[in-house]
Input
Amino acid sequence: MKVLALAYYYVLSSVLRCNPELRRCCVRCKHCRIFFLTSPCNARRRDLGCPFGCRQAHRKRQSARRSAAHYNTPSGKEKKRLLNQRRSLGLTNHTVDSVPEEDSVNPEVPDLEEEVIEHVRIATGLIEGRAVSRAEIIFMLIRVLRQHSMVRENRLDYVIRHLNSKPPG
Output
């Protein structure tokens, strides 16, 4: 994980060196304190969560807090009592046991969270100075994620590792 963070900061600092006008769009996550690029309209905000998990974690914590507060009210306690009673009797909304149909998902599309794709789209648009579509980002990610990585590994080590995983013959 530390290697990924170092690589991320290296790329971010390279981008900021090449595009100094983007420094105002570089903000710090209020939860994990990592720097990330945001939209120019959010550039001055100090209450943002990063798109690498902090936003979802904060949303989940707030939802649990709201739910707990609701179920501590008299009407919430009554609703919870009725829900528990229905569950114990086996009365649910899903009475038919059926397997849900799978969505027609393109196997080529990488399995990434929407917030990460959106963050990459915004950052790429800031760097290139133009509007970038979601389709362009997905196409780029498919192309990049399909490539074999030789990061931090010399050619000989790569060849040996490849030969060990797929011996000739």
Notes: The first strand starts at residue 26 and ends at 28.
